[in-house]
Amino acid sequence: MFETLQKAPVDKIFALLGEYRADKRTHKLDLGIGVYKDATGNTPVMRAVTKAEKRIFDNQTTKSYVGVSGNRGFCDSVTDLVFGDTVDADRITSVQAPGGTGSLWVIMQLLHRAKPDATVWISDPSWPNHYPMLELAGLNPKYYPYFDAKTRSVKFEEMLATLDKMGPNDIVLLHACCHNPTGANLTPAQWDQVADSMKRTGAFPFLDLAYLGFGDGLEADAYGVRKMAQSCPEIMVGFSASKNFGLYRERAGVAIGVAADKEAAGIVFSQMANIIRASFSQSPDHGAEIVNVIMNDPELRTEWEAELTEMREKMLTLRTNLAGSLRKASNSDEYDFVEEHRGMFSLLGLPADAVTKLKTEKGIYLIDDSRVNIAGVPEHDTDKLATAILDVLE
Ligand SMILES: Cc1ncc(COP(=O)(O)O)c(C=O)c1O
Prior knowledge:
The chain is about 45% helix and about 15% strand. The protein is built from 15 helices and 13 strands.
């Protein structure tokens, strides 16, 4: 059996984490893996999460099955958070999935059932898992123009020109906010134009919402997804609670469908439930129940929102500090984009040999496309980091 197989390629991000952990240097710095970190480099359990877990521990009387579509309180709280009252609730349907990745996977299976020959367009570049997931789901991935490596901003005219040429057999995967890996995002006015284009061409919007609240706030970050749902008759959204609730290992996500009407939404729900049953039967409940408890207790919800705001503001401060240090060290405004980008990442645009030198000579670990995890930047040491970056470019 196994002689027909070859070793699969390693996941670069997790391989880099392994290298970092094995590095004995005490001054090493991990700017690679995409997890939020506090000033000590720890990825904290959020305060409201700890309180909710205690409550679950005290009150839960059974570990029996929850059901194929998952924790309904969790799914409803998340759809409410994403859409508020901006979209008719009858059009919305949702199922729980294992993390954001699980939700994307369920959606891809659904899209494959609905339109097996469709092309799924992803941004160039995109989260490295999008392409292999789409291939594994039997779909046909292609890239649309997105990031301008020179200006480190969105090539919007090229992107829109590509979208304008699409049709009903095209699916467009959009990062709803906080683009990974680039950090460059659409403005509200650009979202309006994307929505107009896709409404006109009939291309299908598929949104990846992994960082709600990490950019400019819960409401501002939901602009794109709400706009698409208001403009287009049907969309799908993959939501992750990994980052904004700090629940990475608990694997809490929601696959959301917005259909033309209640009847169509019911069909989408039944198909998603059917896919889940045949894939892994149902999702783990613990992370979902934590979110359910937090979102339905006004005190815990306020505490969660306050901590999420602290995390977001810390990342914005780190962006300002790092951009300032790079401005000073390079005596130019070339790196001002670091301050303009949003979310956890920025693509610095360093050549591969500079990224290698940062690792080997300075003990600073970046993904090889030079994506930096802003949350990992040391708050009071941005001058040192900026000098190291410019050193390896010489
Ligand atoms: C763009 C994007 N989508 C989806 C995910 C998946 O998140 P999860 O850990 O919840 O599966 C990530 C995580 O890094 C991501 O960056």
